Amino acid sequence: MSEDRTISALPDGLWTQPQPSVPSGDDTVSEVQRIRTPASFVYDFTPGRAPSRFLRGLAEKKILGEKCPVSGDVYVPSRGMSPVEGLPTTEAVEVGPKATITSFCVVHIGFGENAPPTPFVSALILPDGAAVSLYGTILGIPHGDVRIGMRVEPIWLPDDQLSTSFENITHWEPIDEPDVPAEQLKGHM
Amino acid sequence: MSPDRVAVVGVGQTKYSAIRGDVSMPGLLREAAYRALADAHMTMDDIDAVVVGKAPDFFEGMMMPEPYLAEALGAVGKPLFRVHTAGSVGGSTAIVAASHVESGVHERVLTIGWEQQSVSEAMWALSFPIPFQQQLVAGAGGYFAPFIREYVRRSDAPEDIGILVALKDRLNALKNPYAHLHEPDITYDSVKDSMMLWEPIRYSETCPSSDGAIAMVLANEKAAAASSASSGVLPAWIHGTSMRSEPATASGRDQVSPQAGKDCAADVFSQAGITNPLEQIDVVEMYVPFSWYEPMWLENLGFAEEGTGWKLTENGTTEMTGALPVNCSGGVLSTNPIGASGMIRFGEAALQVRGQAGDHQIDGVKTALGQAYGGAAQFFAMWVVGTEKP
Questions:
Q1: How far is B256 from chain A (nearest CA, A)?
Q2: If we measure between CA atoms, which residue out of B262, B219, B175 comes closest to residue B350?
């Protein structure tokens, strides 16, 4: 039954090993090479000071960033430190809710259970007053009409469904304001 | 005391494919490692230390595989070091291995980069929902596509530059027996007509998911001379190595052409005495997982002025017949075992210098650049290798 097979897909395979064997005379058994094994992992998450402020803000439909003590740049969401200065942030600042699309792509394949039906627009969104963009989904407009510089606002879950979660913002929709020139958005993606 | 000179004296690769069902993870590493040792005319006994790297463990769901891989490699008892820098890790790993020799501590170091993407789903690993974090609902392509859109806007490049890159790299891959994708029927139109995934990125402009490993043997001057005398193949001398990183999120950061990439290139070229990269570099292997990154990196590396990198693609400069061949191996667009992908760039640069690249060899290569990037385009690793002893 077992016949050595060359290991390596190229002709000069380096060594051989025995073929996998199936018990003889039992045709109900087939050779299994691959199985799917879904995995899960349960854990507790302790957000820390700045992310706690941010998540509690979301529960009140507020987007709270943290201010760099040196440059004044506001980061959202923040882990409580300025990534440029390496210093802790101490001051929370509300940003948005109005925002600007700094760039985007039109997604034609779905990823994960939270993705909307395709095609949809995944965008980098700069809340007013923030220094860097968030990722978000743009709905409420044909994907071909989305532009860099377009003004948008967040769409929230109904009040009775709000929690301390990023998922409170379901997506973003355009608002009737003039576009921001793309050159002003460099360095804020 | 000046650092010891370091050379690549052996390169070994596995055949890359979507599912290497014939070998386990240790088997993949062994295949690459033993080919590299054979190329260097050495055995595992000759190796002083092993430096390995792969992408984050959650891509495969196997935590810290390196301790048990030591046994599979026959490297038990040897110093073994693992490097972590996301997608650039293959490049960083080779540089760390080089520093093990450069320091004078070791004479012969084996370095390996690998990924077994078939045992998990890396794309989904980057997209799973975490309620307390912003979720990227579109995988790696969805992350990088907005920066490509911004590059196209800034440079006013013709819309089909990405198609030209993908076609070139996939045709080059036909000359590389190790490449994962071999698509002999590929045409401009077949790339253009392939499904749009993350507009402006099409299916055929996207890297595949691959299983595979690459290994290299790095040696000091004395060991390189002995290896070369035995194998009859010239060493690829390392003329410069550099790594740079920057925060993923920072005000003023430009992900279209990150400062860390510019600084990394300036540093490695300075070490290698390169003042005019377009003139002095004969061949480039760079990390292009999505087609448009070729022109973007050509600018970031200083081969072209900002906004003009696409012209080198369009006018054929980066073809194998051009003045600056880029990714003759087929590149990441044809083969992407993530943790190996950066080291394949470094190893292919060495193969070109050693004259061992087979059908995708460029004649008369004296100096070659390998480049890798990773994470949110925030990690960079580069080396320059050449025929001349530095």
A1: 10
A2: B219
